[in-house]
Amino acid sequence: MLRDVPSVALKQLVKLSERKEALMAQIQEVDREMVRVESKFGIPSNRSSEVASVTVLRPSQTAHRPNRRGELKKRITQALRAAGSKGITIGDLSGKLKVPTANLYVWFNSTGKNVSGIRKTGVAKYRLS
Question: φ, ψ for residue 67 (rounded to 5)?
Fold first, then answer.
């Protein structure tokens, strides 16, 4: 599935997804402001016939994103060390670190190859040796 997709394409998808989320958050804020102005001046809203509104999580509600350089590497190696010799899958690692799986696939296929001690033990499964 994702093994056939080049890491460059995954990085591009991640950037586009983040950009889309930011734009959707801006649209939602404009909608809220419109409702405030309409209610302030008693303007009836035509929104009752519209489709359900889009809900976008604010950045504080989304998964933790490392801010400092090397923080993701540190968190991944700690999780791999805790998993022991049996290793851990990218899906489990994603849930544990609250990082999107696509980001982890990209990380392991780029940065992870240069980290000594990280070994691939199966499909989307890694361990620290």
Answer: -100, -35
What is the rounded distance in angstroms from the CA atom of residue 64 to the CA atom of residue 100? 10
Cα(102)–Cα(117) distance, integer angstroms:
22
Residue tagged 């190696």 (tokens)? 77
* Residues 6 or more apart whose Cβ sits within 8 Å of residue 2: 10, 101, 102, 105
Cα 34 to the chain's mean position, in Å? 30
Instruction: Name the β-bridge partners of 119.
Output: 127
CATH fold of 63-129, please? Arc Repressor Mutant, subunit A (1.10.10)
- What number of CA atoms fall less than 13 Å from residue 45's CA on the CB side? 14
Query: What is the residue-level pLDDT of the chain in tens, covering all 129 positions?
Result: 567 888 888 889 899 999 999 999 999 999 889 888 888 888 876 655 556 667 776 665 555 555 688 889 999 999 999 999 899 999 999 999 999 999 999 999 998 888 889 999 989 899 988
CB 125 within 8 A of CB 88: yes
